[in-house]
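User: Second chain of the day. Same drill as before.
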Amino acid sequence: MEKKTVLGAAFLLLTLVWVVPAKAQTEEVKPEVAAKVRTTVADYVQREEQLKGGFFLRDSQDKTIRDLQFDYVHEGVEKTQDNLYSVCVDLLDTSKNRLDVDFYLQPTSSGNFQVSTIKIHKVNGVERKD
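Assistant: Same format as last time:
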């Protein structure tokens, strides 16, 4: 019985060590800042579509270039400890696969935001491991 208690306590400690820091890595974002982040991402995708004739993203897993069509920006915006803002965007590829793509933005000195990293998070609801 004592062994189970020790194992249970160890599991609880590991859970807290792994879960709590992950939640502590993001801060709540003010609604007006979140709106500006979402607008910046939507404008970025639209500008890329106009300049290049589509929104193209390299898929790091299958080493292809995906031709994507904007669907919508999710409401939730997070701020990381690295002072980056992240937001998910749903896009559809030419085969009608739904991609959940994470956009990371950094604030600029002028008070705007600049896209710094784009990463495919999910394809058809299946989370990526890269």
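Confidence is low (pLDDT under 50) at residues 4-24.

User: Great, on to the next one.
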